[in-house]
Design brief:
Elements lengths: L16 H5 L10 H17 L6 H13 L3 H15 L8 H23 L3 H20 L2 H19 L6 H13 L3 H27 L2 H21 L6 H12 L4 H14 L3 H11 L5 H21 L8 H19 L4 H15 L5 H14 L8 H16 L4 H17 L6 H15 L1 H29 L31 H17 L13 E8 L2 E8 H8 L6 E3 H8 L3 H12 L6 E4 L10 E4 L9 E3 L9 H30 L1 E3 H11 L6 H13 L3 E3 L6 E4 L2
Parallel strand pairs: 2-6
Antiparallel strand pairs: 1-2, 3-5, 4-5, 7-9, 8-9
């Protein structure tokens, strides 16, 4: 310890006189020469207590004592002097107390090193003795230990509350406790208990006061602060229990409350930063990610279910689904670390809610595809259109009743192909390829057949034009016919209309030409999808008018007269009443009014009269007059859906017969199980039972006479 009379470091002030004067206490076998050397060594040590010593001389003196096997006595008396020296009874405020304790500890460490420097035979014992004496007489003192630990805890609490503290002081004192091997028992247990109490209260209070984003940032900041304390002054062994304590009290105890209070808001507002932080924090807590996963799945089901099951939102359903899927994909990718479990849960949730409302999503997806593939859609480039189709296919995969999609898609595809409304043949074939890859060749066989019919029709028309050139009476009407295979295309209600004689004659010529090449076939004309280009003369000059076949029949009447009533037009053309009113409305009430209606008005009523508008003007030479499209009625939608259900019954019947023919005998449960494996659409057990009963009634199969639940195939 520092000599009290000087400011320089002096050797320990201990009494060695016993060693010099009390010779009988030494080993009797020492020679006189040995005794003189020992006396000189002791004298050197004694001299060092009153003057500044030379460390080299002192070292030599101590080494001499050790070499003559007097180290046990030297150690014993040195220990006693150290024990007398280490007294600590000062009364100070907490911070001053800690500083005094730290200074005492630093002095003690330095002087112990001075005593034992490089004297290897004494080093370990003296160092351990120094630590033991400090632990016994200072730190183990209950009052001293209590004040030390409470002072350290007070400084840490001040720092946690935002005040600046002396970290080097804390680092030194906690290092002291660690060196003295009392860190865990005297400090860490109390420290963790206080930390647990602090953050338990803080978590409860802040969950009430703050919103979830603010609370998450607070938790993150607290964790950073505690990790910084470990680096700065706490023992490394404290890291795991300390961080676990903070995570448990600020997160683990409030996981459900955090998610209930804030997850929906974070997802609704697309708060990606806070969502990423939420995932990061919950991944640290036991059970955190499974809890987050469940709430994430429930949110998707709830939000998506509202989109699908709200009829008022049907108009925007598909676009809303695509936007929602993009949003959830982004969250999973950028916030949830591309966690496969979360991605799979999202897919399961989408599949669950999108099939809550049978058939309608499939129908609307088909119509959405139609809107994107139809000519006039200028919203996207080819690359953007391709990306949109890819996104649609992702939604399409979740649908169970894909046959409903097929029915509506085929109906719209037919219109696009026959009326020339398709925006791009490449885009159409790309969509077809995607459907084939997703559902198999059987799903797209009819759709592919429609494209083949259109290509074959082009070849047939080339041959027909050559045929017409060889006719003795060539027609002044250029006829184009699309030959459709009935099984590939949607069924259309036949409608008989009164065509002009020139058209009827041309139809007969084509019929003769076609059946001459394909005997045994029957042609059925379908006027509802026909269209024509007419040459018209107005005061302004000649124009070409592109119109539907029904519009053509109406306009041609005005070659024969100036004005007609709606009844006269209906009689002359044979067009059904509702279709005729829509046709006249497009010609007399639309943007391009080639007819005048009397009286004026937006709607066509019984008793209205029409005349040719000779004053019609338009900047274009060829004018396209769109037919007023009748919105698909509920009856038509029901009709399409009913046709799907009818097809499903045929498929069920075929599957039952196929299975029974192969198995010959099968129980009801096994048959139903096989049917579920083979059928591609959702079906209820009751519907399967009805189809089985129907097949039994029609003698395709029979029940076992002794076991009614067993079926036998009837050849």
């Amino acid at each position: 310890v520092p000599n009290k009379n000087t400011s320089s470091v002096m050797f320990m002030d201990f009494d060695m006189y016993v060693l010099v004067t009390d010779r009988p206490k030494l080993a009797e076998n020492y020679t006189e020469d040995t005794w003189l050397k020992l006396r000189d060594a002791v004298g050197a040590i004694q001299n060092s207590t009153s003057i500044k010593y030379n460390l080299e001389e002192l070292y030599q003196a101590v080494e001499n004592l050790c070499s003559y096997k007097v180290s046990p006595t030297l150690y014993k008396q040195l220990r006693q002097v150290c024990e007398d020296h280490v007294q600590f009874t000062e009364s100070l405020d907490n911070l001053s107390f800690l500083k005094r304790m730290n200074r005492c500890w630093q002095d003690h460490c330095r002087q112990t090193v001075s005593v034992v420097v490089d004297v290897l035979t004494l080093f370990t014992r003296l160092r351990d003795t120094g630590l033991e004496l400090f632990r016994t007489h200072i730190v183990s003192d209950s009052a001293v230990q209590k004040r030390t630990v409470e002072g350290i805890l007070e400084q840490i609490e001040l720092e946690r509350n935002g005040e600046t503290v002396d970290r080097s002081l804390l680092r030194s004192l906690l290092g002291m406790l660690s060196d003295l091997q009392v860190y865990k028992d005297s400090f860490e247990e109390r420290f963790l208990s206080e930390t647990n109490r602090l953050y338990a209260a803080e978590g409860q209070r802040l969950m009430q006061e703050r919103d979830v984003p603010e609370y998450l940032h607070h938790v993150s900041r607290r964790l950073e602060e505690e990790n910084d304390r470990i680096v700065s002054y706490l023992d490394q062994s404290t890291q795991k229990p300390l961080i676990s304590c903070v995570e448990k009290q600020l997160l683990g105890e409030h996981m459900t409350a955090i998610l209930q209070k804030g997850l929906s808001t974070l997802l609704d507002e697309n708060r990606v930063t806070e969502l990423a932080l939420l995932y990061q924090l919950f991944s640290k807590v036991k059970g955190g990610l499974p809890t987050l996963l469940q709430f994430w799945r429930d949110y998707i089901k709830s939000f998506g279910g509202e989109i699908v099951c709200t009829p008022e939102k049907d108009k925007d359903m598909v676009q809303d689904l695509l936007d929602f899927k993009d949003k959830m994909d982004n969250v999973a990718q950028s916030c949830f670390a591309r966690n496969e479990t979360f991605i799979n849960a999202m897919k399961e949730a989408f599949e669950a809610f999108i099939n809550k409302r049978p058939n309608k999503p499939a129908e609307l997806i088909a119509k959405y595809v139609d809107s994107k593939l139809r000519a006039g859609n200028k919203e996207a480039t080819e690359e953007e259109l391709e990306r949109i189709l890819d996104k649609i296919m992702i939604i399409f995969r979740f649908i169970h009743g894909k046959d409903v999609f097929e029915a509506f898609y085929k109906k719209d595809l037919a219109k696009r192909l026959l009326v020339g409304k398709s925006a791009s043949v490449d885009a159409e074939k790309s969509m077809l390829s995607k459907l084939k890859h997703e559902c198999g060749a059987a799903f797209t066989s009819k759709l592919e057949g429609m494209f083949k019919d259109m290509e074959l029709s082009k070849d047939i028309m080339i041959q027909f034009k050559q045929y017409m050139q060889n006719q003795s009476e060539p027609s002044n009407i250029e006829l184009t016919v699309n030959i459709l295979t009935m099984g590939y295309w949607p069924s259309y209600t036949p409608m008989e209309v009164h065509l002009p004689p020139e058209m009827v004659k041309l139809q007969e010529v084509f019929k003769l030409f076609y059946l001459g090449k394909h005997s045994g076939r029957k042609l059925q004309w379908q006027p509802t999808l026909g269209h024509a280009v007419l040459k018209a003369e107005f005061k302004e000059g000649k124009k070409e008018v592109q119109v539907s076949l029904f519009q053509t029949l109406v306009l041609l009447m005005f070659n024969e007269g100036e004005e007609f009533s709606i009844e006269e037009i209906r009689t002359a053309t044979g067009i059904e009443e509702g279709e005729l009113k829509r046709t006249l409305q497009s010609l007399a009430c639309g943007k391009a009014r080639v007819l005048n209606k009397n009286p004026r008005g937006k709607d066509v009523e019984d008793g209205d009269r029409f005349n040719f508008n000779n004053d019609f003007k338009h900047k274009l030479f060829r004018i396209k007059i769109n037919q007023i499209q009748m919105k698909e009625t509920v009856e038509e939608q029901v009709s399409t859906t009913e046709r799907v259900f009818q097809d499903r019954q045929y498929q069920i019947d075929a599957a039952v017969v196929r299975i029974m023919k192969m198995r010959k005998t099968l129980s009801h449960n096994l048959l139903v199980s096989e049917l579920y494996n083979q059928l591609k659409f959702p079906v209820k057990p009751g519907d399967l039972k009805k189809r089985i009963e129907s097949l039994i009634d029609r003698d395709y199969m029979e029940r076992d006479k002794e076991t009614p639940n067993q079926y036998h195939y009837v050849a």
